[in-house]
TrEMBL record:
DNA repair is among the record's keywords: no
Family named by the database record: Belongs to the trans-sulfuration enzymes family.
Superkingdom: Bacteria
Any one Pfam family match given in the protein's UniProt record, by short name: Cys_Met_Meta_PP
In-chain residues carrying the UniProt-annotated modification N6-(pyridoxal phosphate)lysine: K195
Protein name: Cystathionine gamma-synthase
Organism annotation: Dictyobacter aurantiacus
Transmembrane segment boundaries: none
Record keywords, A-Z: Pyridoxal phosphate
An individual GO BP term: cysteine biosynthetic process via cystathionine
Cofactor(s) the protein needs: pyridoxal 5'-phosphate
Gene Ontology CC, one term: cytoplasm
Length: 378
């Protein structure tokens, strides 16, 4: 099946008992058993639920895998993958990454003597230089959050596998529609399904997809043991959102192109970060590695923190809020919101300044989005 067909049908056959086209919401905590070991595949909904199974199978199929797990949030999915590490292990990560991920690395894992080295996201050679004898994971975001740099997944995977290291790729910004990291050599793909996969800003969730069954089984054990799983209604909402993923992503990208071009010509804008622009340093890699450039645009403008506040207050269609990937346009101030957990000196050294805004371009009429930006920046 092609992508759009998988999004609608993978893991979602009509209900065998009623013929219902839509996957039922199995709103139950437990399941009747006929005797010792006598169950129909489900015992307790922390361990497994049919609605969640449909979601896990569908997301796995979209990443061209058989092994998917769903979680209560993107960070719950991250923590489950990080359970593969033990005290004394080392990890290499790109330096431009989500603030919540940085917080886990520096304020949770560090308590267990698990150390992380950060390297420039787009510098392939720096990843190999950072590898130690105890390195177990290389952690990537591509495009990165919020500066939208790209990492060469195939090149990093080749380096990692020479050293028997797993490669984890957070694919949230691209979605499986625009990028499939397992096909490029990655071992594990992560998603905050809150974002593009659900796409309607009405549920929080996460997912992890695996190339190798043994790694999948290890994380599945943690999923059940720790219990950070989505409920059946959240799973159902996410499944409903997935059905329109392909058409939404095409419109997000088309609108983002329009917005990025407008911003790149605006006199108050110092810099625009969007892989679809020929001026982006990773534009050629994006063309090779992705099937499209996505719906995220970050930009830096001339002014002060007070000017940032004035701009976001003036917006009328675009909403000032955390998160991304919904049908509506959302703008955030990474330094004080999504990346506020990263110390200022580290943020600024990585290029994340106080006048940087991150825009999740929605699927409204592109002309209205541009007009809103224009009046706010005027």
């Amino acid at each position: 099946m092609k992508f759009s067909t998988k999004a609608i049908h993978a893991g979602q056959e009509p209900d065998p008992s009623t013929g219902a086209i839509m996957t039922p919401i199995f709103q139950t905590s437990t399941y009747a058993q006929t005797g010792l070991g006598g169950h129909k595949g489900y015992e307790y909904s922390r361990s497994g639920n049919p609605t969640r199974t449909a979601l896990e199978d569908c997301i796995a199929a979209l990443e061209n895998s058989e092994y998917g797990l769903a979680f209560a949030s993107g960070l719950a999915a991250e923590q489950a993958v990080l359970s593969l590490l033990k005290t004394g292990d080392h990890m290499v990560a790109c330096d431009d990454l989500y603030g919540g991920t940085y917080r886990i690395f520096e304020r949770v894992l560090s308590r267990y003597q698990i150390e992380t080295s950060y390297v420039s996201a787009a510098s392939t050679k720096d990843y190999e230089k950072a590898i130690r004898p105890n390195t177990k994971l290389i952690w990537l975001e591509t495009p990165t959050n919020p500066l939208l740099r790209l990492v060469d997944i195939k090149a990093i995977a080749e380096i990692a596998h020479r050293h028997n290291i797993l490669v984890v790729v957070d694919n949230t910004f691209s979605s499986p529609y625009f990028q499939q990291p397992l096909e490029l050599g990655a071992d594990i793909v992560l998603h905050s399904t809150t974002k593009y996969i659900n796409g309607h800003s009405d549920v929080v969730g996460g997912a992890a997809v695996f190339k190798d069954k043994e790694v999948y089984e290890a994380v599945k054990f943690y999923q059940n043991a720790a219990g950070g799983v989505p409920g059946p209604f959240d799973s159902w909402l996410t499944l409903r959102g997935i059905k329109t993923l392909a058409v939404r992503m095409r419109q997000h990208e088309e609108n983002a192109h329009t917005v990025a071009r407008f911003l790149s010509e605006h006199p108050r804008i110092e810099k625009v970060y969007y892989p679809g622009l020929a001026s982006h340093p990773d534009h050629e890699l994006a063309k090779r590695q992705m099937k499209g450039f996505g719906g995220m645009v970050s930009f830096q403008f001339t002014g002060t923190l007070e000017d940032v506040d004035q701009v976001v207050r003036r917006l009328q269609i675009i909403t000032f809020a955390e998160s991304l990937g919904g049908v509506e346009s959302l703008i955030c101030h990474p330094a004080s919101m999504t990346h506020g957990s990263i110390p200022r000196e580290i943020r600024e050294a990585r290029g994340l300044t106080d006048t940087l805004l991150r825009l999740s371009v929605g699927i409204e009429d592109a002309e209205d989005i541009v007009r809103d930006l224009e009046q706010a920046l005027r």
